[in-house]
Amino acid sequence: MPAVPAAPDRRSVLRGGARLALGAATAVALPGCGAGRDDGVGADGRVTVELWHGQADTGRKAIEQLVAEFNRTHPAIRVDAGGGVLSDAMLQKITAALAAGSFPDIAYVFGSDLASVARSPSVVDLTDTVRSGPVPWHDYWAPAREAVTLNGRVRAAPALLDSLAVVCNKKLFADAGLPLPRPGWTWDEFVETAGRLTDRARGTFGTGWPGVGDEDTVWRLWPMVWDLGGDVIAADGKRIGFADSGVRALETVAALTRDRSVYVDPKPGSEQMYQVFLSGRMAMVVTGPWQLPDIQEAGIGYGVVPLPSYSGRPMTISGPDTWTVFDNGAARVRAARTFVQWLTQPAQDVRWDIMAGSLPLSRSTQALPAWRAQDRGTDGLPVFTEALKSARVRPVHPAYPQISRALGQAIASVLLGRSTPERALRRCADEANSALLIPR
What we know:
Blueprint: H1 10-21, H2 25-28, E1 47-52, H3 57-73, E2 77-80, H4 90-100, E3 106-110, H5 114-117, H6 127-131, H7 142-147, E4 149-150, E5 153-154, E6 157-160, E7 165-169, H8 170-175, H9 187-196, E8 207-210, H10 215-218, H11 222-227, E9 231-233, E10 240-241, H12 245-258, E11 262-265, H13 271-278, E12 284-287, H14 292-297, E13 302-305, E14 316-317, E15 321-325, H15 330-343, H16 346-356, H17 363-366, H18 369-377, H19 381-387, E16 391-392, H20 400-415, H21 421-436
Parallel strand pairs: 1-2, 1-3, 8-11, 14-16
Antiparallel strand pairs: 3-15, 4-5, 6-15, 7-12, 7-13, 9-10
Helix pairs in contact: 1-20, 3-16, 12-21, 20-21
């Protein structure tokens, strides 16, 4: 069974956006410009494009291979992939660069950060580039399209796609005499199953949840909110859309806490939660396809099932990331547009997906023989891909980081038994609603 190549930086991708964007939103709004920088055109007419890719290890190797191929096949453009920082520090780096007026041509920006970054006039509008590109716009999965669209305009190119599902330890289920869950199961069944799979004497937990209160804590709750009819922001844009559904979702979290069936990870990045699962002491973990390589390497016999829901209908979340283009003059913008168009075409996308642990950006990529082979040869991977049909994304909204921070603290307080769902959500609403009233 071929393993999905690891993407070590994906776990930091999940938590980075909301944490860093809080202090950055105002600074990004400063008018950055490329004035004073060269136009990137060499004496031979070749245009140099600076790329901050944010990847580590396998992801870095994948993007560097693709960049080398692009440079070889596009002699009028040279992409320099040597700059930047790891993705979980990218927003901070980009914010400082925009304020200083010296920034890259392309950067890997978390989808949850795009609205804050796109407030800068130096961010290039890619509506025409993406919608008239070689990959038809509607061929991209809906989460990929929605994550890069702000106020009807495409502000970046989709870079990476994922989804959440539940990975189950087959041995722990068998030891407890329980069958693996099936699609259509409910959150009540999840809570009951987690309780039956918890054995405090043996130090085993039914499930786990990040407990720091960061974006990694938060984004796991949104599918529950959406399934209950709520939304992140209400239709009027002036208040949160989960005042009621959020309480119900937090009641499910509280039930796990009361049963003592949930391992609450006290550190950022969920590393301890994953280590508990990889050591065979956790029965179910809500995660994405990036975690499969580590699970395979640990020798855990596993199965993957869709997220539970309240309604029985499929519901999950995708956390796409972006290639955001910045304006350093007409020549460099044209070259940057050419590169991101090339990079998101199926022939390149499938290589990036397989090497970096992503899901296909488009149905055209999904249809390629290379992806079909990857899908067939990797246990559980088809569940994550199928989930894209029902996946939703967090709103591309400048106030999202503040909403996430408020909800993250609410979830953490319930996980740690410090608050009831009602009190926690009331405090969350006060802070988040205030953020939504700030003029943008």
